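Appendix B, example 12.
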Amino acid sequence: YDDIKRTARALMQEHGTAGLSIRAIARAVDLTPPALYYYFENLDALITALIVDGFNGIADAMEDARDAHREDHPADALLAILLAYRQWALDHPADFQLLYGNPIPGFHAPREITVPAVIRGFIVIITALQAVLDAGEVEIPDYILDLPPETEQTYLRVMSDVNETTDGQRETMSQLSVEAITLGIAGWSQMHGLIMLELFEHLPPVVGDTDVYFRHQMLTMFQ
């Protein structure tokens, strides 16, 4: 089971998501295609497992950073979490691009399986951001909070969907402010854009040291 997923990741690393096929994976692990179906019902099931592993991997990295910085100032803890997010992406580029960069034609992730893993990492960031807001050291620009009603309704629907989130996740998110969620998504958009530009090697020629630039952007994002 784990060998199959490792092989799929290696094929993605070499050929992108276009390299994912039952036949290619079976050949690489010395199985027949029918034998592979013993472990995964079909290619979509394997891709889904890789996606869940990826989102849980990001969440693990951010939770480790959070736990290591519990005694730090909330802003320092938030920075450590965001740096951990980026580092996971740099350490696992094929997985990160599967999650965010390379849509697979015909594949639609089952939200009831993948969304809880997504929300797990999202909660780490937003709860850390909530702590920063509670410290009273961030002034949120009006243009960020002035959301179209449709957008805010979508936020709230995703946060409370009983089919796509766990009871514990909904309980945690019920304690988060709309301001924290709004600011978190705005910041995530910027952070994610920087990481994708870096992974595809567009950012280094423009900014030089991407470690320095990313840290600077995270420090100034909410000021």
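The longest helix spans residues 43-68. Residues 114 and 190 are 23 Å apart (CA to CA).
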